[in-house]
Specification:
Elements: E1 34-42, E2 47-53, E3 58-66, H1 71-86, E4 96-101, E5 105-111, H2 118-125, H3 130-133
Antiparallel strand pairs: 1-2, 2-3, 3-5, 4-5
Length: 134
């Protein structure tokens, strides 16, 4: 899997043709097309920011990771992107919207889901029973 631009690609043959005068839609694969609002969290591999995708005014979570890390960090990031791509249709998981890279960063753009993480829920409520999971 390449980090240049994954996800959000239209199916082959389904690309919308633009007329000459029509404005080009900003790419979801360009960090400059997101307005960073606040830091949601930070972990071993990078930080997660709440952002707004400028064309749709849609809230997204952006995981930003430096390329300066260890080779194992990069492998973990590639694995995470692969899992997100495989889980695209699962209704219980956060959706990945785009992955791309800059000279120094790897960026995963994901659906924003308010309310914290599963780990936050487990820390506050403890073990969840079957009814809570369904």
């Amino acid at each position: 899997m390449s980090f240049t631009s994954s996800f959000c690609n239209p199916p082959a043959g389904k690309e919308k043709k633009k007329s000459r005068g029509e404005a080009k839609t900003p790419s979801p694969f360009d960090i400059n097309n997101y307005r960073l609002l606040k830091k949601l969290g930070e972990g071993t591999f990078g930080k997660v920011m709440l952002a707004s995708y400028v064309t749709k005014n849609q809230l997204v979570a952006i995981k930003i990771m430096s390329k300066d890390g260890e080779q194992d960090d990069f492998k973990y990031t590639r694995r995470e992107a692969s899992v997100l791509q495989l889980a695209w249709r699962c209704p219980f998981l956060c959706k990945a919207m785009a992955t791309f890279q800059t000279q120094s960063l790897i960026v995963l753009v994901m659906e924003y889901m308010s309310g914290g993480t599963l780990q936050d829920l487990l820390n506050t409520r403890g073990r969840l029973n079957r009814d809570q999971l369904l």
